[in-house]
Specification:
Radius of gyration: 11 Å
Structural class: mainly beta
Number of strands: 8
Strand content: over 45%
Strand order of the largest sheet: 1-2-3-4-5
Number of helices: 0
Helix content: under 10%
Largest sheet: 5 strands, antiparallel
Order of helices and strands: EEEEEEEE
């Protein structure tokens, strides 16, 4: 897996786990990238998001734009 960000986002790898956040917001971990879906985790809460749909995790609205061969493209919005 590879993490990257743009704008006010940040992406990091901690102990092999890919994580991202908006600005100074909390880090969201990518738990799994499967066939057509991504599972993300924040503070012990998991959400599975399928391609073309959105899910809410903590302060974030996360949309899975696409997933292909273990690579996911996400759009994340946070309030404020």
């Amino acid at each position: 897996m590879r993490a990257s960000g743009s704008g006010r986002s940040r992406a990091v790898s901690i102990n092999g786990r890919q994580m991202f956040a908006c600005g100074a917001g909390p880090l969201v971990a990518i738990i799994d990238i499967g066939s057509g879906a991504v599972t993300a985790q924040l503070d012990g809460q998991n959400v599975q998001i399928t391609a073309g749909s959105s899910g809410t995790l903590g302060p974030y609205q996360i949309t899975l734009i696409s997933v292909d061969g273990g690579t996911a493209t996400l759009e994340t919005n946070a309030p404020g």
